[in-house]
Amino acid sequence: MTDDAYIEAAREHAASVGGLEIDEGAEVSRGASPGAYVAAWLWVDSPDGKPSDQDPDDPEPEEMSQVTLLPQSFFVIDYKDFEELVKKTYGINEYSFVQTEEGRNDSTYRFSVEKNDACPRGRDAADLADLEAIKAGAVPQYSNHVIFQDLVDRGVLAHGQYLVEVCW
Description:
The chain is α+β, with helices and mostly antiparallel strands. The protein contains six helices and seven strands; from the N terminus they run αββββαβααβααβ.
């Protein structure tokens, strides 16, 4: 069965039971047994009869007014996946994101990268020298930004903001 077929079957069941809602594109989790779990919403009335439009763990609106929050979108990549991408792209056997960045466990590193058509494969002479060292298998410290820029300029990665998550 397709995910859509499982979702439709879950909707039919929910209609007979009542009180359940299933979103378009709901998450479907298959297991070893025949069938699948389909994510659904179950409405629960507030025991005190008060509106439930605010999560008690959320800050009060007056607290939020003192802070400026800007929503942003990021590509998130695990450091090990990034390491494999770099090794494959440059044909090198050794590369460590953590060592190059002098990173720590349970950390996230942000990189903002735009396509650089004016100066492909780097932004200046120092970046170009770092790229040549990387291709030779000697990855200079703090050169991850140069690697990201080169991968975007080559079309290996899309331009944008990246978060590299480090956890071992």
